[in-house]
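Hi there, hope your week has been kind to you so far. Please have a think about how the structure follows from the sequence. I've dropped the whole record in just underneath, so have a look:

_____
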Amino acid sequence: MTRAKHMTGEAETTRDLLFSFLGHFRTSVFFLLCAVTAAAQTPAAPQDKPVVLDHVVAVINGSVILQSDVNEEMDYAVLQPFSIKGADDTPQTALQRLIDRALILQQMETAQTVDPPSPEAVQQSLTQLRGLIPDCAHYQCKTEAGWQAFLKAHGLTEKEVVARWTQRLLLLSFIQSRFGAGVRITPADIADYYNKTLVPQFQGKPLKPPTLEAVSSRIQEILLQQRVSSLLLDWLQSLKSEGSVSILDPAYGKVGTTGSGDETGGPS
């Protein structure tokens, strides 16, 4: 009898503990559901910037061009305002330049080579450039502080600009050596370009145009590039037909060629 009562007492104690546990469990579940419901009804805090994933837009004979490359190409167009008009520069035209440049660089690996420009030549060219970009007048780019402010405002760095400009000069040297033989540029041609093309670009700008003497060598370079552009265009088209140029992003449609690995229609 005593043992039965003892067992009954244990059963009641176990039952009470079970009911207590279930009560706490139901309460916990209730508050958990309330918290989850409140969280679901609370709008997520907006992110500062949308997350943009990089992706491949084109493949040139095995060399990949990313969307970030196109974006960077458009950023650097500010260094060539005469040949790359800001309003006309689109992702499609930027991709055209990247494709042409990739084709030329690939040919340079197997064809005749040219000596890379010296650091002094690159700096001299950049110094001249700082006096040619009309938008530089606002930053006073002829001063080092002004030039650095200009680069920072456009998301560029000195190191990146030097590397890019070095490659540009190398490409231009290769193009001239391959297609420029026999092309003659006269002083009259240079003066005509200066008066009709370069000077008008500075109208309405606080920065005065450079003197003809200061930019004559650059204008000669530009005119030489323009004279060989038709030959270069044919060459690039043949490279595309002989090689493999695949546009993977349908947003870019069918991309043609600019006729150069780097825009050559202006003094920049």
